[in-house]
Design brief:
Layout lengths: L13 H30 L16 H9 L10 H9 L10 E2 L6 E7 L4 H10 L4 H5 L3 E7 L7 H13 L3 H11 L10 H11 L4 H9 L1 H17 L6 E4 L2 E4 L4 H15 L1
Helix pairs in contact: 6-7, 6-8, 6-9, 6-10, 7-8
């Protein structure tokens, strides 16, 4: 595009010449925005079943930090978001579905579904590599049910509660996930869950059956799902790790780095 000669009378093309720089600037801005969005999608570490993004992932600070440091989940700075994250940590010494020192510097709250393939992948590939952090007092893990993926997800969650009532939740958890296919959405029956309970060493199977089907257990699992939804957490797995969070499956190094960074920050 050539500039008009000074002193010449404006011709019919003059208005177009004046608007072109604005259009070009807008196109450049849109291109830059699309590039940024593409980069953010590429570096996002997590993979979530059920397909929905939880509310916290919309935090622009988190997105920018994750892009700059993709080796761990960033600490959040928004006061309201931090209030939500910290409010989910219970540190209840009587919690049958928690493991690790109640006073550990890092608490990882896990929202999961026994029928979730990415939850299965996490249980099989990542969790065993976190045992050392639990044993040395760095990490505490607290389980939360988000049972939604299949029609029998709630029944499996109820079975987990029932196993926990007899002090065998994590043994039950390990048995269920060890048998699950990370490429599938397993369906459960009362009998298959009883078999997992027996494998986990649950002593009183009749009580297990009773607790699994108890109306209070059914309601507790439904309430847990609704509570997660109220927070904006709609996909599994989802992890709160002190002042950071991970939405979806992430590999061992990413999770460990996040835990260790949060432990250092807690000192």
């Amino acid at each position: 595009m050539t500039s008009p000669t000074p002193g010449t009378a404006p011709g019919p093309q003059r208005p177009v010449s004046r608007s072109n720089p604005i259009i070009v600037a807008l196109l450049i801005a849109i291109a830059i925005l699309l590039t940024i969005i593409a980069i953010m999608l590429v570096v996002r570490p997590g993979h979530s079943d059920a397909g929905a993004s939880p509310t916290p992932s919309s935090d622009p600070t988190a997105s920018a930090a994750a892009s700059a440091n993709p080796t761990s989940a960033p600490s959040q700075t928004d006061a309201e978001l931090l209030k939500i994250l910290r409010g989910e940590v219970a540190r209840d010494s009587d919690d049958a579905r928690a493991k690790g020192d109640v006073d550990a510097p890092v608490v990882m709250v896990v929202y999961s579904d026994f029928a979730c393939p990415y939850c299965t992948l996490f249980a099989q590939e990542v969790e065993p590599n976190l045992d050392g952090l639990i044993e040395d007092g760095t990490l505490r893990v607290e389980w939360r049910d988000l049972a939604q993926i299949t029609q029998t997800s709630p029944l499996a969650a109820q079975a987990g509660v029932a196993a926990g009532n007899q002090g065998k939740f994590w043994e039950f958890h390990d048995a269920v996930y060890a048998a699950a296919d990370p490429n599938d959405h397993p369906e459960y029956t009362e009998e298959s869950l009883v078999a997992f309970a027996e494998q986990a060493g649950v002593a009183d199977i009749e009580q297990f059956r009773t607790d699994m089907n108890d109306a209070a257990t059914v309601q507790a699992v439904a309430d847990a799902k609704q509570h997660a939804y109220d927070l904006g957490i709609t996909g599994t797995p989802f992890f709160i790790i002190n002042d950071a969070y991970i939405s979806g499956y992430a590999p061992t190094d990413y999770v460990r780095n996040t835990i260790l960074e949060q432990a250092a920050a807690a000192q």
